[in-house]
Amino acid sequence: MELTIRPRRLRENERLRKMVRETRMDKSSLIYPIFVQEGVNIKEEIPSMTGQYRYSPDKFPYALEELLKAGIDKIMLFGIPKEKDAVGSQAYAEDGIVQKALRIAAEKFPEMYLISDVCMCEYTSHGHCGVLNGQDVDNDPTLKLLAKTALSHVQAGAQMVAPSDMMDGRVSAIREILDQSHYQNIPIMSYAVKYASAFYGPFREAAGSAPSFGDRKSYQMDFHNKREAIKEALLDVEEGADIIMVKPAMSYLDVVSEVKNKINLPVASYSVSGEYAMVKAGAKLGYIDEERIICEMAASAYRAGTDVYITYFAKELARFMDEGRIG
Q1: Which positions are annotated as active-site residues?
Q2: What is the pTM of this model?
Q3: Residues 289/261, Cβ–Cβ less than 8 Å
Protein backbone atom coordinates (compact mmCIF):
# COMPACT_ATOMS: atom_id res chain seq x y z
CA MET A 1 0.00 0.00 0.00
CA GLU A 2 1.38 3.41 -0.97
CA LEU A 3 0.85 5.76 1.96
CA THR A 4 2.45 9.19 1.88
CA ILE A 5 1.30 10.26 5.33
CA ARG A 6 2.13 7.81 8.12
CA PRO A 7 1.61 9.32 11.60
CA ARG A 8 3.25 6.25 13.16
CA ARG A 9 6.65 7.40 11.87
CA LEU A 10 6.85 9.86 14.76
CA ARG A 11 5.95 7.18 17.32
CA GLU A 12 8.79 4.82 16.47
CA ASN A 13 10.78 5.14 19.71
CA GLU A 14 10.81 6.98 23.03
CA ARG A 15 13.38 9.62 22.02
CA LEU A 16 11.38 10.53 18.94
CA ARG A 17 8.08 10.57 20.81
CA LYS A 18 9.53 12.93 23.42
CA MET A 19 11.00 15.21 20.76
CA VAL A 20 7.62 15.85 19.14
CA ARG A 21 5.58 15.86 22.33
CA GLU A 22 2.92 18.59 22.31
CA THR A 23 2.41 18.92 26.06
CA ARG A 24 5.40 19.53 28.29
CA MET A 25 5.50 19.76 32.07
CA ASP A 26 7.99 20.93 34.63
CA LYS A 27 8.30 20.64 38.41
CA SER A 28 8.29 24.42 38.69
CA SER A 29 4.57 24.43 37.85
CA LEU A 30 3.57 22.12 40.74
CA ILE A 31 1.98 23.32 43.99
CA TYR A 32 1.44 21.03 46.96
CA PRO A 33 -1.55 21.67 49.27
CA ILE A 34 -0.75 21.15 52.94
CA PHE A 35 -2.78 21.23 56.16
CA VAL A 36 -1.59 22.77 59.42
CA GLN A 37 -3.48 22.58 62.70
CA GLU A 38 -3.18 23.88 66.22
CA GLY A 39 -1.38 21.64 68.68
CA VAL A 40 1.99 20.02 69.35
CA ASN A 41 3.69 16.90 68.02
CA ILE A 42 0.94 16.17 65.49
CA LYS A 43 1.41 14.34 62.23
CA GLU A 44 -2.04 12.88 61.73
CA GLU A 45 -2.96 10.94 58.62
CA ILE A 46 -6.24 11.99 57.00
CA PRO A 47 -8.40 8.83 56.86
CA SER A 48 -9.97 9.56 53.48
CA MET A 49 -6.69 10.73 51.94
CA THR A 50 -4.10 8.01 52.45
CA GLY A 51 -0.61 9.51 52.58
CA GLN A 52 -1.79 13.05 53.39
CA TYR A 53 -1.40 14.53 56.87
CA ARG A 54 -2.34 17.34 59.20
CA TYR A 55 0.74 18.88 60.83
CA SER A 56 1.14 20.92 63.99
CA PRO A 57 3.52 23.90 63.67
CA ASP A 58 6.44 21.98 65.24
CA LYS A 59 6.06 19.08 62.76
CA PHE A 60 5.35 21.28 59.75
CA PRO A 61 9.07 21.98 58.98
CA TYR A 62 9.75 18.26 58.50
CA ALA A 63 7.08 18.16 55.80
CA LEU A 64 8.68 21.14 54.06
CA GLU A 65 12.10 19.48 54.14
CA GLU A 66 10.63 16.41 52.48
CA LEU A 67 8.99 18.52 49.78
CA LEU A 68 12.18 20.41 48.99
CA LYS A 69 14.11 17.16 48.70
CA ALA A 70 11.51 15.99 46.18
CA GLY A 71 11.98 19.18 44.17
CA ILE A 72 8.72 20.85 45.22
CA ASP A 73 9.26 24.47 46.29
CA LYS A 74 5.68 25.79 46.29
CA ILE A 75 2.96 25.06 48.82
CA MET A 76 -0.60 26.18 49.44
CA LEU A 77 -1.47 26.40 53.13
CA PHE A 78 -4.80 25.47 54.73
CA GLY A 79 -5.37 26.04 58.43
CA ILE A 80 -7.36 24.13 61.04
CA PRO A 81 -7.92 26.26 64.15
CA LYS A 82 -8.63 25.03 67.65
CA GLU A 83 -11.54 27.43 68.16
CA LYS A 84 -14.22 28.55 65.70
CA ASP A 85 -16.84 31.28 65.87
CA ALA A 86 -19.60 32.82 63.75
CA VAL A 87 -17.28 35.32 62.07
CA GLY A 88 -14.23 33.08 61.65
CA SER A 89 -12.00 35.37 63.69
CA GLN A 90 -9.08 32.91 63.73
CA ALA A 91 -8.79 33.33 59.96
CA TYR A 92 -7.37 36.84 60.40
CA ALA A 93 -5.93 36.56 63.93
CA GLU A 94 -2.30 37.60 64.25
CA ASP A 95 -1.57 34.33 66.07
CA GLY A 96 -3.82 32.21 63.82
CA ILE A 97 -2.60 28.79 62.72
CA VAL A 98 -1.83 29.80 59.14
CA GLN A 99 -0.05 32.93 60.32
CA LYS A 100 2.10 30.82 62.66
CA ALA A 101 2.95 28.33 59.91
CA LEU A 102 3.81 31.13 57.47
CA ARG A 103 6.23 32.71 59.91
CA ILE A 104 7.94 29.37 60.55
CA ALA A 105 8.23 28.59 56.83
CA ALA A 106 9.42 32.07 55.90
CA GLU A 107 12.15 31.96 58.56
CA LYS A 108 13.37 28.40 58.11
CA PHE A 109 12.76 27.80 54.41
CA PRO A 110 13.26 31.01 52.42
CA GLU A 111 13.54 28.92 49.25
CA MET A 112 9.93 27.74 49.65
CA TYR A 113 7.29 29.82 47.87
CA LEU A 114 4.35 30.33 50.22
CA ILE A 115 0.76 30.60 48.99
CA SER A 116 -2.12 30.89 51.43
CA ASP A 117 -5.70 29.84 50.84
CA VAL A 118 -7.99 32.70 51.85
CA CYS A 119 -11.44 31.59 52.99
CA MET A 120 -13.63 31.46 56.08
CA CYS A 121 -15.10 27.95 56.00
CA GLU A 122 -12.40 26.29 58.14
CA TYR A 123 -12.81 29.01 60.77
CA THR A 124 -16.55 29.59 61.07
CA SER A 125 -18.64 27.60 63.54
CA HIS A 126 -21.28 27.09 60.83
CA GLY A 127 -18.81 25.97 58.16
CA HIS A 128 -19.87 28.45 55.49
CA CYS A 129 -17.46 30.68 53.59
CA GLY A 130 -18.54 33.98 55.09
CA VAL A 131 -20.65 35.83 57.62
CA LEU A 132 -24.29 34.83 57.82
CA ASN A 133 -27.43 36.90 57.52
CA GLY A 134 -30.00 34.39 58.66
CA GLN A 135 -29.32 31.26 56.61
CA ASP A 136 -27.53 33.10 53.79
CA VAL A 137 -23.91 34.10 53.41
CA ASP A 138 -23.85 37.91 53.38
CA ASN A 139 -21.55 38.82 50.50
CA ASP A 140 -20.38 42.37 51.18
CA PRO A 141 -19.61 42.14 54.93
CA THR A 142 -17.67 38.94 54.13
CA LEU A 143 -15.42 40.88 51.72
CA LYS A 144 -14.00 42.95 54.58
CA LEU A 145 -13.05 39.84 56.53
CA LEU A 146 -11.52 38.14 53.49
CA ALA A 147 -9.43 41.23 52.77
CA LYS A 148 -8.36 41.37 56.42
CA THR A 149 -7.41 37.67 56.27
CA ALA A 150 -5.37 38.10 53.10
CA LEU A 151 -3.49 41.05 54.58
CA SER A 152 -2.70 39.11 57.77
CA HIS A 153 -1.33 36.25 55.70
CA VAL A 154 0.94 38.54 53.69
CA GLN A 155 2.17 40.27 56.83
CA ALA A 156 3.04 36.81 58.21
CA GLY A 157 5.03 35.82 55.12
CA ALA A 158 2.67 34.70 52.33
CA GLN A 159 4.08 35.53 48.90
CA MET A 160 0.78 34.93 47.14
CA VAL A 161 -2.82 34.76 48.32
CA ALA A 162 -5.53 32.55 46.85
CA PRO A 163 -9.14 33.49 47.72
CA SER A 164 -11.38 30.43 47.47
CA ASP A 165 -14.66 31.72 48.91
CA MET A 166 -16.47 32.64 45.64
CA MET A 167 -17.89 35.89 47.01
CA ASP A 168 -18.58 38.53 44.37
CA GLY A 169 -15.92 41.25 44.41
CA ARG A 170 -13.44 39.58 46.70
CA VAL A 171 -10.47 39.95 44.34
CA SER A 172 -11.08 43.69 44.14
CA ALA A 173 -11.38 43.96 47.94
CA ILE A 174 -8.15 42.03 48.49
CA ARG A 175 -6.26 43.93 45.79
CA GLU A 176 -7.34 47.22 47.33
CA ILE A 177 -6.22 46.41 50.87
CA LEU A 178 -2.90 44.93 49.70
CA ASP A 179 -2.16 47.95 47.54
CA GLN A 180 -3.09 50.38 50.30
CA SER A 181 -0.78 48.48 52.66
CA HIS A 182 2.15 48.71 50.21
CA TYR A 183 1.95 45.10 49.06
CA GLN A 184 1.37 45.96 45.40
CA ASN A 185 3.68 43.16 44.27
CA ILE A 186 1.83 40.33 46.02
CA PRO A 187 0.00 38.28 43.37
CA ILE A 188 -3.56 36.99 43.73
CA MET A 189 -4.38 33.52 42.44
CA SER A 190 -8.16 33.56 42.31
CA TYR A 191 -10.32 30.48 42.63
CA ALA A 192 -12.31 32.22 39.91
CA VAL A 193 -14.11 29.14 38.60
CA LYS A 194 -14.95 26.98 41.59
CA TYR A 195 -17.79 24.54 41.13
CA ALA A 196 -20.10 23.18 43.84
CA SER A 197 -18.59 19.74 43.49
CA ALA A 198 -18.92 16.38 45.20
CA PHE A 199 -15.19 15.93 44.58
CA TYR A 200 -14.44 18.06 47.68
CA GLY A 201 -15.68 15.48 50.18
CA PRO A 202 -12.33 14.27 51.57
CA PHE A 203 -11.04 17.85 51.88
CA ARG A 204 -13.95 18.78 54.11
CA GLU A 205 -12.98 15.95 56.43
CA ALA A 206 -9.33 17.00 56.29
CA ALA A 207 -10.05 20.64 57.08
CA GLY A 208 -13.15 20.15 59.23
CA SER A 209 -14.97 22.57 56.95
CA ALA A 210 -18.26 20.89 56.09
CA PRO A 211 -21.22 23.28 56.42
CA SER A 212 -23.40 22.60 59.46
CA PHE A 213 -26.53 23.23 57.39
CA GLY A 214 -27.45 23.54 53.74
CA ASP A 215 -24.79 23.60 51.03
CA ARG A 216 -22.62 26.09 49.11
CA LYS A 217 -24.60 26.18 45.88
CA SER A 218 -25.61 29.81 46.38
CA TYR A 219 -21.99 30.91 45.97
CA GLN A 220 -20.06 28.07 44.30
CA MET A 221 -20.89 27.43 40.65
CA ASP A 222 -23.44 25.06 39.13
CA PHE A 223 -21.47 22.26 37.45
CA HIS A 224 -23.79 22.37 34.44
CA ASN A 225 -22.47 25.80 33.40
CA LYS A 226 -19.56 26.75 31.18
CA ARG A 227 -20.40 30.28 29.94
CA GLU A 228 -20.76 31.37 33.55
CA ALA A 229 -17.18 30.19 34.14
CA ILE A 230 -15.91 32.61 31.50
CA LYS A 231 -17.90 35.43 33.11
CA GLU A 232 -16.38 34.65 36.51
CA ALA A 233 -12.86 34.44 35.09
CA LEU A 234 -13.14 37.72 33.16
CA LEU A 235 -14.55 39.53 36.21
CA ASP A 236 -11.59 38.43 38.33
CA VAL A 237 -9.17 39.51 35.61
CA GLU A 238 -10.79 42.97 35.68
CA GLU A 239 -10.56 43.08 39.48
CA GLY A 240 -6.82 42.46 39.50
CA ALA A 241 -6.27 38.70 39.70
CA ASP A 242 -2.88 37.53 38.45
CA ILE A 243 -3.65 33.82 38.03
CA ILE A 244 -7.07 32.30 37.33
CA MET A 245 -7.89 28.90 38.82
CA VAL A 246 -10.41 26.27 37.74
CA LYS A 247 -11.46 23.81 40.45
CA PRO A 248 -11.81 20.81 40.31
CA ALA A 249 -9.51 19.74 37.48
CA MET A 250 -10.31 16.27 36.17
CA SER A 251 -14.01 16.62 35.30
CA TYR A 252 -13.67 20.26 34.22
CA LEU A 253 -10.89 20.18 31.63
CA ASP A 254 -13.26 21.53 28.98
CA VAL A 255 -13.63 24.58 31.25
CA VAL A 256 -9.84 24.84 31.72
CA SER A 257 -9.45 24.88 27.94
CA GLU A 258 -12.19 27.47 27.45
CA VAL A 259 -10.80 29.76 30.13
CA LYS A 260 -7.30 29.41 28.68
CA ASN A 261 -8.60 30.56 25.30
CA LYS A 262 -10.46 33.57 26.71
CA ILE A 263 -7.97 35.20 29.08
CA ASN A 264 -4.37 36.37 28.87
CA LEU A 265 -3.28 35.28 32.35
CA PRO A 266 -1.79 31.98 33.58
CA VAL A 267 -4.40 29.31 34.31
CA ALA A 268 -4.20 27.02 37.34
CA SER A 269 -6.20 23.88 37.93
CA TYR A 270 -6.64 22.10 41.25
CA SER A 271 -6.68 18.31 41.27
CA VAL A 272 -8.83 18.04 44.35
CA SER A 273 -9.14 15.64 47.27
CA GLY A 274 -11.81 13.46 45.67
CA GLU A 275 -9.63 12.82 42.64
CA TYR A 276 -6.75 11.87 44.92
CA ALA A 277 -8.92 9.60 47.09
CA MET A 278 -10.39 7.76 44.10
CA VAL A 279 -6.95 7.00 42.70
CA LYS A 280 -5.70 5.78 46.07
CA ALA A 281 -8.78 3.62 46.66
CA GLY A 282 -8.70 2.13 43.16
CA ALA A 283 -4.99 1.34 43.47
CA LYS A 284 -5.46 -0.28 46.88
CA LEU A 285 -8.06 -2.60 45.38
CA GLY A 286 -5.74 -3.45 42.50
CA TYR A 287 -8.12 -2.05 39.90
CA ILE A 288 -5.75 0.55 38.41
CA ASP A 289 -2.05 1.25 37.91
CA GLU A 290 -1.64 4.17 40.31
CA GLU A 291 1.53 5.63 38.85
CA ARG A 292 0.29 5.59 35.27
CA ILE A 293 -3.04 7.11 36.29
CA ILE A 294 -1.28 9.94 38.16
CA CYS A 295 0.78 10.74 35.09
CA GLU A 296 -2.18 10.56 32.72
CA MET A 297 -4.34 12.81 34.90
CA ALA A 298 -1.59 15.42 35.08
CA ALA A 299 -0.87 15.29 31.35
CA SER A 300 -4.56 15.75 30.57
CA ALA A 301 -4.70 18.88 32.78
CA TYR A 302 -1.68 20.43 31.09
CA ARG A 303 -2.95 19.40 27.66
CA ALA A 304 -6.20 21.26 28.37
CA GLY A 305 -4.27 24.46 29.10
CA THR A 306 -3.12 24.27 32.72
CA ASP A 307 -0.02 26.35 33.47
CA VAL A 308 -0.01 25.74 37.24
CA TYR A 309 -1.08 22.38 38.69
CA ILE A 310 -2.15 22.12 42.33
CA THR A 311 -2.07 18.47 43.36
CA TYR A 312 -1.62 16.14 46.31
CA PHE A 313 0.46 14.01 43.94
CA ALA A 314 3.09 16.75 43.50
CA LYS A 315 5.91 14.73 45.06
CA GLU A 316 5.15 11.68 42.93
CA LEU A 317 4.91 13.77 39.77
CA ALA A 318 8.24 15.44 40.53
CA ARG A 319 9.84 12.00 40.78
CA PHE A 320 8.20 10.81 37.56
CA MET A 321 9.52 13.90 35.80
CA ASP A 322 13.02 13.22 37.11
CA GLU A 323 12.73 9.67 35.83
CA GLY A 324 11.55 10.84 32.42
CA ARG A 325 8.21 9.05 32.71
CA ILE A 326 6.25 12.27 32.23
CA GLY A 327 7.05 15.81 31.22
Answers
A1: 194, 247
A2: 0.94
A3: no
